[in-house]
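Q: For a teaching handout, I want to show students what a protein-ligand complex looks like in token form. Below are the inputs, and the small molecule is protoporphyrin IX containing FE. Please produce the holo structure.
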Amino acid sequence: AELFRNAPPTAIFAIGAFVILAFSLVIREFLNPLSKIPGPWIAKYTDIYTTYQFLSGNKPRYVHSLHKKYGIMAPRISCIEFEGSTSNPVLPIGPVVRVAPHEVDIADISAVKEIHRVGGKYLKSEFYDKIGHRGGRTLFNQTDPHLHAIRRKLLSAGMARANIVHLEPDVMQRIQLTMKRMQEENDHSGVIDVFKWWTFMAADVITELSFGQSFQTTEHGLKTPLITTLQKQSFFMAVRTTFPSLLPWAQLLPLPLLKEVQAGGQRIFHRASQAIGQYKRMVDSGLNTRRTLFSNLLKSETRELTEMEIIQEACGYIAAGSDTTAITMTYLIWSVCRNQSIRDRLVTEVKGLPDGFSEESVRDLTYLNQVINEALRLHSAVPSALPRRVPPEGATLGGYYIPGGTTASTQAYTLHRDPVLFPASESFNPSRWENPTKEMKAAFMPFGGGTRACIGIHLAWMELLLATTLFFRKFPDARVSTKEGMCDEDMGVKAYLLVSPKSRRCLIEV
Ligand code: HEM
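A: Here is the structure, written as tokens, with protoporphyrin IX containing FE included.
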């Protein structure tokens, strides 16, 4: 009391305001239905710690640790039911955890399936509004379901399996060139940086298929600013979505990182607009009749998207279709090369193919498919939260009522590490896919799911099948190098929306 009597009025006012604020926060939290959901205390009041984990490239691991830690406190769901089957009645990880005041993460498979259902009501959250460079809208970040459906319909024909099959020769040639260039690097320096070459390969495939002409990074073999941007784009996306209001001021603020993020987006946009402009002129003058992913959209009689919309879509394809494939291939090669028995079994299978094999003939190779599935499981290129908004009426997910407007995220990192479905989940074991259960298949979501599932899945699978086969046919003795200080730590993961190896390299000796 003595202290208060002598305190200046401003201090008393400040303390009073603080007490009232703290009290109202506690009351609000007490009345909030989300307060029943287990999670760390800080997540009830602020998203600051989760944002810190996101910007540090650690959010998927952090959220997974919450599922493990708070699993014990969660109400038990009697079972996860799928048609005709019942799984283990005890969930070993928490089905729902709170990660921020208005965000929960869901690992209960039935709830995940409901969220990512075709035609479902869980729309992409406002997180996606902030992804595009200068507010650009693409299929990937469109949050309006009606506009998304129109755009998806337009782009689906190009990405359909029937069309992708026609593009196989281009993909095959590009991968063959990548093998040749890898061999040259090995002859020259004794090691191959496969992360670099897969990034070149994937960037060239998607640009060639989009514009009828690749950026030719495989030919030049140089890490151009564009390639560096692609390798850093996941981090750039994290910055863009965390500080959206600062970005328009990037040129005026003394923050080099913001300038770099803006310049990166600008670089991809500039290259895409040049390439689309050139391709369109050739199509208009009848000089280029090569089939591409955008052929139909560029024909003058059926022009349904403006040139600007096609450029933005092409930027989206470059961003979504290059790093994802390159990362998957890099971790696949690294994982296989670390285990001689896995490598030898795969080599035996692919060596048996005749020269001049096609994708058709590798599509059903048993062990090859198991290896790819396991790489997509353990080293998902998109392991992180795919945030969706709970519909206005609210929903019961994983045994909890979640009010409308809450962000319900799901992350492949946790789904792919369910210890019941994937025992010894941290080990790379392709044989676990010999006889996958329905539950394993349901939990396996490397390409997302439902209406917003990856449109590039057929192209991605074609690249993964052909690149893995060609690599192990050409380099049957491939092993992880220890030259230049290469060690497991280099392959530690930085995970934003996409992952990348910490050191941005993966050295292999062949
Ligand atoms: C191994 C390679 C790939 C992986 C793991 C992958 C993964 C994913 C995932 C998880 C999503 C859902 C994202 C979300 O819900 O927010 C997605 C969507 C998407 N992906 Fe892929 N992707 C791959 C390759 C490709 C390729 C080659 C393309 C080619 C352009 C592509 C284009 C897209 C697009 C445009 C979307 C948005 C679809 C929509 O919202 O309708 N992806 N991808």
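A: Two things your students might notice: The chain has one domain: 145-509. The chain has 22 helices and 14 strands.
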